[in-house]
């Protein structure tokens, strides 16, 4: 689902209202403000680039090697350029990160001056240097080509007014003798104006994308791996603790509570009904039975017994039988699944069917369990009214959090009018 107001230029270019929006003017402002920066950088690069091109051209055409003086100049100039580039790129990067905001509303964080030595040792610095050379080398060439196209279009549009000139104007290498010959060119030039507006946006979008790619702080891969490992350890620790609590409740508290309930029941049989202790004993017996049911439900909520007895497919069919609407289960599972994946999948289906019953106004639902590569894929489809939105409730958000905890992902398709499809992919690594 697209947003009402695009946040960046590349997204705005895909909108039908591009030509009548403010985005072309923002793109034009971005390009115009680039000219002085790219011009200064381009002149600086030409100091080294022009003699280098001349030396290469002389060697290629005449076989003359460059003079020693020229080679010394090129070597000294190149080393000086590389030495100064990390210092020059810092203020340029600060300005460029700010200017990207003209065409891209997504924040591009900047970093403070890290110190002279750290500046030369940082990988982010040399990414900024690469952007510096791109801005001063490629950008002026692209701008000149675009300027030639604009001037050519202006020449086509103005050709009817120039046709009577004694100098006989030339449009696209074709001499124009009369106004009649110039009118088709003028019409084509007018029709090309929207194309040039789109070209402005495309040029600005490419430049902004390169700026974002090179000037954004790279993700710390080592830190990201550590976060992933930490989350895996937490999930493993949670699963071990869950099994311990389940075992303690099932093997410790539940048998004692069952024994207490039996003892109270036997005591009720020995106490006459007209005894003053009969009623309190009956109340205590009923409360013990209720507590035993509650404890059994609590153990069931930690890991449903049906998962242990029937496996995932059987437990899901049991959920389907208990649903308030007809639910068809399609299960194609042949391999054994990790316990944490089975438990997560069970609660995903349980929560999804609960959402269908509470919100969808559906008449039927389908649950599909399949293996795709190394993943368990769960799809819950209903024929309800659609329009499910995670922002309007915590059900889907909690479901997504549960899936993310085991490194899975949740996909939702719920157009107005339905159908709603919840697809969950859970990796089955052991």
TrEMBL record:
Domain Histidine kinase/HSP90-like ATPase residue range list: 340-430
UniProt keyword annotation of Transferase present: yes
Q: Which UniProt keywords apply?
A: ATP-binding, Kinase, Membrane, Nucleotide-binding, Phosphoprotein, Transferase, Transmembrane, Transmembrane helix, Two-component regulatory system
**Which residues are in coiled coils?**
none
- Spans traversing the lipid bilayer: 23-48, 68-90, 129-152, 182-206
- The EC code for this enzyme is 2.7.13.3
Gene Ontology cellular-component annotations = membrane
One GO molecular-function entry: ATP binding
Q: What class of enzyme is it?
A: transferase
Q: Please, which domain of life does this record's source organism belong to?
A: Bacteria
Q: Extract the SUPFAM superfamilies matched here.
A: ATPase domain of HSP90 chaperone/DNA topoisomerase II/histidine kinase
- Catalytic reaction equation(s): ATP + protein L-histidine = ADP + protein N-phospho-L-histidine
Q: Is this entry keyworded NADP? A: no
> Mind telling me what this protein is named?
histidine kinase
Q: Which organism is it from?
A: Micromonospora arida
